[in-house]
Structure formats: C-alpha cells, structure tokens
Amino acid sequence: MQRIPKERARATKKQNQLFLSLANNTLIGVGVIKQQRFTFVNRKLASMTGYDRQELLALVDVRQILPSFPCDLIELSEEKNEHLIETKLLTYSGRRFDVELCAIRTVISNEDAIVLFVLDISGRKKNERLTQLASLVYDNTCEAIVVTDEHGLVVDVNPAFIDVTGYELSEVIGRSMSILSSGRQSPAFYQQMWAQLKETGRWQGDVWNKRKNGEEYAERLNISTSYNPDGSVFRRIGLFFDITQDKEREQHIWRQANHDYLTGLPNRQMFQARLQQAMQEADEQKKEFALIFLDLDLFKDVNDSLGHDVGDLLLKEASKRLLSCVRDTDTVARIGGDEFTVIVADIPNQSVVERICEQILIKIAQPYILGENTANVSASIGVTIYPEDAADAGGLLKNADMAMYAAKECGRNQYCFFLPAMSEAIQARMLFSQNLQTAIDENQFILYYQPIIDMRTGRVHKFEALIRWEHPELGLVPPSEYISFAEDCGLIVDIGNWVFYAAVQQLKKWYARGLNYQISVNVSPAQFYADGINVDQWVKLIQEAGLPPSCIVIEITERLLLEANPMITKSLHQLRQAGLSIALDDFGTGFSSLTYLKRYPIDFIKIDQSFVRNLAPNSEDLALCEAMIVMAQKLGLGVIAEGIEGPQQEALLLEAGCVLGQGYLYSRPVPVQELERWLAERKALPTNSSKNKDQTITGQLPQAT
Ligand code: C2E
Ligand code: CA
Ligand code: CA
Fold it and tell me: How far is the CA of 534 from the centre of ligand 3 (A)?
C-alpha cells in the first residue's frame, strides 16, 4: 500500500507526457474528460465532430457526441487503466460514423480524468463490410469459382465448385485444373485458350470436363486475371456454371433436325452434308465412292392395305437390314417416305458395289413379320459413281434417281448403274409423269362421250365415257399416249377414280332432268392390280348422287381375266352384286376363252373394232363376228359392236343379230354439250323405232337444250 501513491505519481507523469505529445498529433482526436464533460479537445477531435472546440467544451455531456460512451468507466474498472472501445460518433450534423476510442484513466490535477483518443475507423469498417459481403457471395453463389496462382495451381475454390465437380478443396489445392479434363477438347483448343489468356488476361468459352465420379459435364467458363503491381500474374480466377442440360437440349434439337424420327437414320439434310463430305474426301484421297438410291417397290400397297403403323414397322425393319449390308463408315439415310440413300465410301472397283446391291436386294425381299401380319416388298436400286458420273451433289442424286427409275422400268427388284444414255429417255418420262400428276392435280382431264346405239330403233341411252387430257400447251392428248404410262407409274388409280366420279356427276345431272342414261367407264387392269378400286366407295358415290347402280357399266379387258387373281374376281363380284354391269371390252383380241365368260360375272361383250373395220359379206371377219354374237347369246350376254363407220357394217351386224353398236357412223366421242346437241338433232329425225319396241331403250331426248 505504501508503494501505490509513488507508482501512481509515476504513472500520472508518464500519462501526462504521453498526453501532451499526442494532443499535438493532428491525426487522432484527443480529449480529456472529467465528470462526463470535456475539459480539453484537440482540433482534430473538433473537426471530426463538426463542432468547434469551444462548443465541445461547453457540451453538458460527452454522450452528446459519443452516445454509448461508458462514462462510469472510472468507477467500474479499477484495475484496468486503458480501454479500447469501438463505437459510433454522432456529429453536429447528425451523421454517425465508426470510431475507435482509446480511453485512459488518469489523474489530472488531483482529479480523476479520462484521456480519450478517437480514431476514425469508418473506412476500415466499410472495407470489412465489403469483404464480408464478398465472402458471402463467394460462399453462396451457384457459380463455381476457382482461384489459381500464376502457375495455374489451385489456391482456392468455393462451395459451388465442390458441388459441380465433386472435388473437395483439399483434393484440388495445389493441383492443376487439368484434373477435370475430359479429353474431349483437342490440345489445340487449350493452346488457343492459353495464348489468349496470356495476351488479354481473359478467356471465355464452353468446355467439356469430367466430375470426380467420372461423369462428363459441360461448363461455360470465364477466366480473368489479377496482376501484381509489377505486371506479373498474381491470380487467375475461373468462374463457371454447369450447362450440361443446355448442351443436351441443343444436341437433342440437332439430332431431331438431322435424323429421321422413325428409323433414327440421317435424314435428307444430314445426307446432303455427308454427301458433300464424301465428295471432299474422295477428292483429297483421289478415290471413288458410290451413291445408291433405293426405293421400296409397292410399299404404298403395304401402307394402304395394312395401315400406316404396320408400314412404319416395315420401314424400321428395312432400315436395319440396309444397315447390315454396309460398313459402319458408310452412310445410310432415309430421304423420303420409302426412299433411302447409301453412300459407299472408298470403293476399289464396281464389283464391290454390285455385291452390296445384290445383298440389299436379297435382304429387303425377305418377308417382314410385322406383328400379326406378314408383308413382302422388294427394292429398286440405282447406283452412280463419284466422280465418274457427276461432279456435284445435285447431279449425283439425279443420276442415282434415274438409275433407280430404270431399275423400276425393268421390272423392279433389281439394281441399275447409271448410264449417260439413260438421262434423256428417262428425263422425258419423268417430265411426262410430272405433267400427268399436274393434270390430275389441276383437273386438266375431261370426259368425252360416245353414244351406243340400238341399231334397230336408232334410240340411244348408253354412252361410253372416254377420257381426254386438255394439256395447256399440247392441246388435246389422246388416251393412247398416256394410259399405259399411267398404268406403269400407278397414276392410273387416281385417274380411274376421277373418271368414275366425273361419270357419276354427269349422270346425276341427266337424272335430274329425267334422262335415265347409262354410262360405260373404262377401268384399267392396273387399277385392280394396284388394289385401286374401292367398291364400297364407288357404290356410295352412286348412292349419294341418288342414282340406281345400274346406271354404270364397268368396261374391263380380257387382260384382266387372264390372271386368275382371287382379289380381282372378288372385286368384280362385288361390283356386280352392288348392281353395276360389267362389259368385256376389245373382245376377240385376247384369249377370248369361253371359260372366262362363264367364270366371271359379265353382262356384255364388246366386239373389238378390228373385226368390224373390214366387215364385208362372206368375209372371215363376218364369220367371226357371227360366232361371237351366237356365243354371247347362248350365254345370255349382251353384245356391242365397236368401230362402226359405215352403213354396210351396221347392216351386216344387225343381220347377224347384234343390236347395239358404237362408232363414227353415229358419232365420234364428243364433249357433253356437243353430245346433247347431237341428241337433240337426232330427236328431230325420224327413227326406225317401229321395227322393235324395246322398253329398256328409253333415251329421252332433251327438249330445251
Ligand atoms: P376403247 O375402250 O376400246 O375405246 C374405243 C376407242 O375407239 C376410243 O378411242 C374411240 O374413240 C375409238 N372409236 C370409237 N368409234 C370408232 C370408230 O368408228 N372408228 C375408229 N377407228 N375408232 C373408234 P380412244 O378414245 O382414243 O381411247 C382409246 C383407248 O383408251 C380406249 O379403248 C380405252 O382402252 C382407253 N381409254 C379411254 N378412256 C379411258 C379411261 O377413262 N380409262 C381407261 N382406263 N382407259 C381409257
Ligand atoms: Ca372401252
Ligand atoms: Ca374397245
């Protein structure tokens, strides 16, 4: 206890010295407090508070500028003389800022006092808050962050990095980022990246990397650099986020745009790209490749008879078979409904392609078991060689298409190599086929009618409908120039349906005027073969027009009956049962067998005009005509003689017992308006009807037209 005053005196002295030296220090605010009031303030403190020194000394309470200043400091902390306090200083203008106070208990002039040092720490506090914020972002952002040193070795990573990559900080620290490498990018890719980083300090791009579990992922990476004052690299900061899903979506879209949804094969677009690539490679390597164009024969029939779902199954299976015939490096594409292409790269000689084609033909022709159904198709194949046959993609495709067309023409289920001579003939045919399609689409067809006369009475109530094509440039094209072509390429089905429809519409008009006429329509065998006759639909058409089915006669040819096809027999019976009549056209030119006449449901035979043309008394043709007429009569069939051009022919036929005749003697086939004019004129003429009264021939002639 003796020593205390002495020590205190020493301490006081020391503090006074300190105080004096610091009081002059303008960087720190200094004040002396006695009984909660300032007894001294330096200029700095005054300027910090916004008061002048006198005002400060006059304050009632220190807490006016230091609201949370512990004024009881003196009583509370006996044993501790110095206190460091962080608090807020309230200025004259009401602003608050952070200060650090160093309060020292002392005795001045025998009174307890506090010497206060006030340091403005608002700048430091602000920095602290910013740092806190930064680390908050660093820790919580979903963007992965990796910081490396100047050598590219990891210094730090944030939690998002750990989430994305699966690596802990301890596993990556001090290591190179190449541990994430997936190997998907080429060395050149990284070289470029580093070159740019060194030059600009920045790089941005998409990278495929690998997670710790081996899974590959795509990241969008943004690298920036922080430099030392001397310009050397201090840190590189990599920011990235996972874009695997975006990439996968992109790839999905790309796949959809470039692949056929059904078979998964490249589609036309991708095929075009591959073809370009094949041409480029062939050029570079001075090699040849073959382009194969394949079309399934009669695929449409499968689709029509078994439905599109089954058709789809067949296409899938066919594409598998195609793939099995070629190497992995070859391209098989589906470029249309039942059209495929194959690029056979790098062929040493033609026989290699021949073998592939043969294999394709065999495999494609094997039966397809599709659920409960079995279907058969074959393929027609065209082949062209690059660069021998054409120098560009368009030319190649055209060649292959033409060669395929030639294969079809030769009877299908075969392959043809392109030959330059093909182009002209086939192109002309292709053009014709296009024209014919246009004719169907644009309704360029019209029906002409030729009357069939009751030669005894001169009355008319039957007409044969004969098709005409009114070509916008070529004029009237006769059927002989396109019917057989239409039969070959299948367009006959559409044409035949149109003819039937047009005939029914004409009958409807006539019936509406009380004219109960009958129209014969020619139906091609090809329509039956292609299963192009929908009997139900035709009958419905007649019914909807409010007509009796007997108003239509179907003219078929012997050609059709030659083939003992149960489908054809069925269709004929259906037509007959529905009430339509059937006439056998061009009779005598084919196999004219009696068996046909008995076996098939036939109502009329039409004696071909070749017999009628040279009809003369005692001629062989007359004998033949008489034989046919007798035969028909015995079987209860009607007879119509075609091609009657003169009165002598008419007379001889009548004498032989033939009642119905057709030919230029009466009228050529004419458009309906002309026909009606002709009918009106005939009405005015006296008829030899008194000879025979046949109730079935009741052609009422139009009065007013
Ligand atoms: P077709 O069925 O034997 O028709 C009779 C053909 O003989 C018609 O030729 C007709 O104009 C012609 N003709 C009629 N009377 C005489 C005559 O007194 N003397 C001569 N020399 N000829 C006569 P067209 O109209 O050129 O038709 C030719 C063939 O085209 C038809 O032979 C038929 O097989 C076919 N055809 C016509 N229209 C159609 C059709 O709508 N569908 C189908 N599938 N074939 C049709
Ligand atoms: Ca005919
Ligand atoms: Ca005929």
Answer: 24
Quickly tell me which residue has 């067998």 as its tokens. Answer: 593
**Where exactly are the structural domains of the chain?**
6-122, 141-248, 264-433, 447-694
H-assigned helices in 98-146: 122-140
Of 170, 180, 169, 176, the closest CA to residue 151 belongs to 176
Burial class (CB in 10 A: 0-12, 13-18, 19+), 258: middle
CA of 479 to the centre of ligand 1 (A): 8
Q: Which CATH number fits domain 447-694: 3.30.360.10, 3.40.50.150, 2.60.40.10, 3.20.20.450?
A: 3.20.20.450
Name the region of 523 (left: φ>0; alpha: ψ -120 to 50; beta: rest).
beta
Q: Report pLDDT for 75.
A: 59
User: From the CB of residue 329, how many other CB atoms can be counted at a distance below 10 Å?
Assistant: 9
Ligand 1 binding pocket (C-beta < 6 A) is 450, 466-467, 478-480, 483, 499, 522-524, 555, 585-586, 609, 643-645, 662-664, 669
Q: pTM for the complete prediction? A: 0.52
**What's the rounded Cα separation, in Å, for the pair 441 and 436?**
9
Contact 313, 370 (CB under 8 A): yes
b/e map of 124-159 (b: 16 or more CB within 10 Å)? eeeeeeeeeeeeeebeeeebbbbbbeeeeebeebbe
- The token pair that represents 203 in the structure block: 């790089």
| CATH ID of 141-248, from 3.40.30.10, 3.90.25.10, 3.30.450.20, 3.40.50.360 | 3.30.450.20
Cα–Cα distance measured from residue 559 to residue 574, given in angstroms and rounded to the nearest whole number: 19
Over residues 670-705, the pLDDT tens digits come to 999 999 999 999 886 654 443 333 333 333 333 332
List of the chain residues with pLDDT < 70:
1-4, 15-16, 18-26, 73-79, 563-564, 591-592, 684-705
Nearest ligand to the C-alpha atom of residue 479? 1
Atom of ligand 1 nearest to the CA of 645: 18
Peptide bond into 617 cis (omega under 30): no
Give Cα separations from 320 to 264, 324, 333, 355, 370 (angstroms).
10, 6, 11, 18, 14
What whole-number distance in Å separates Cα of residue 313 and Cα of residue 325?
19
pLDDT at 412: 86
Task: Determine how β-strand 203-210 pairs with β-strand 445-454.
Answer: unpaired
Q: How far is the CA of 560 from the centre of ligand 1 (A)?
A: 17
Residue 509 to residues 41, 502, 545: CA-CA distances in angstroms? 122, 11, 9
DSSP letters spanning 328-353: TTSEEEEEETTEEEEEE-S-SSHHHH
The C-alpha atoms of residue 340 and residue 256 are separated, in whole angstroms, by 18
Name residue, tokens 């650090």.
100
Q: Ligand 1 pocket test: pick from 491, 522, 524 the residue with the most ligand atoms within 8 Å of its Cβ.
A: 522
**CA dihedral sign, ordered 315, 316, 317, 323:** positive
Distance between the two ends of the chain, CA-based, in angstroms?
151
